[in-house]
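Notebook, bench 3.
Goal today: get a predicted structure for Fructose-1,6-bisphosphatase from Rhodopseudomonas telluris so we can plan the truncation constructs. The sequence was checked against the plasmid map this morning, with no discrepancies at the termini. Length recorded as 334 residues. Pasting the sequence as submitted so the record is complete.
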Amino acid sequence: MSTTISVPPQLLLERILTLEIVRVTERAAVSAARLRGHGNEKGADQAAVDAMRRELNKMPIEGTIVIGEGERDEAPMLFIGEKVGAGINGGPKVDIAVDPLEGTTLCAKNMPGSIATMAMAEGGTLLHAPDVYMQKIAIGPGYDKNVIDIDAPPEDNIHRLAQAKGVPTHGITVLVLDRPRHAELIAKIRATGAGVQLITDGDVAGVIHCADPENTGVDIYMGTGGAPEGVLAAAALRCIGGQMQCRLLLDTHSKRNRAESMGIEDPNFVYQIEDMVKGDCLFAATGVTDGSLLSGVKFRKDVIQTETVVMRSVTGTVRYIKADHRQFEKFHLD
């Protein structure tokens, strides 16, 4: 006698969407990778945006882009508020955050660390962050609450983390974006004896690195970067664990007015992960260029190879998917 296993529709749908968002980031990564090393940042970004939009519109969802490509870089956009998905009648309502090509300069110069990434969450649960800079501090899982404090000096955060980890301060490595604005921060970090690992771009991947210090060597992320990237990073940490605190840098009237129009009432509010991603979410990223997080797209004679990480907050599952795409051109143009 056969037994039929009943799977709740929402759970089944979540599992389907987990695979579907992998296809979205894969297509974006492959499209961008065709322009690796060509010195054309906007062209690579546009290729990733177009591929991501095309794939999103095939998904059985009623999706709204709440985090899109940024105006700060004068880049092409999946614009905030854009509706995507094929589930016009009855599909789940979801919020979507995208960075179709994080590290446009890295891709244009064929340097390590460029990725295509997105997050998806229940409708109304992702922070609608304006495209401004955001102060960030993040660590991985396994620590007591309040080990980090965004308002504390960097020295205090390093000492507290070292104590929690049971190592001297010179056993801590801090990841920081290599920008002139971080010169003072870097000096203060090094004065504690801690090491600094600098990255030129890609602070979504940078935050994710601190969640796996045994493999990445990174214990903590500090500094300022894009607010949209902050929400994407928070989605990843929501899935794999960790702590993150962020504050929007609203230093002009126009920025404050824009933030207020997006529902942000307190310009000095300190956001935790749960404030930026309030419900269950999915996160995916596919490598464009080789990096410490993911391998880049490989164009072989008869196959295109990709590597993707996909995460689910409801289960805490993290999957790394290495895929061989055959007859990719035909599939890509469907």
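The domain at 133-276 is CATH 3.40.190.90 (D-Maltodextrin-Binding Protein; domain 2). The longest strand covers residues 93-102.
Flagging this for group meeting.
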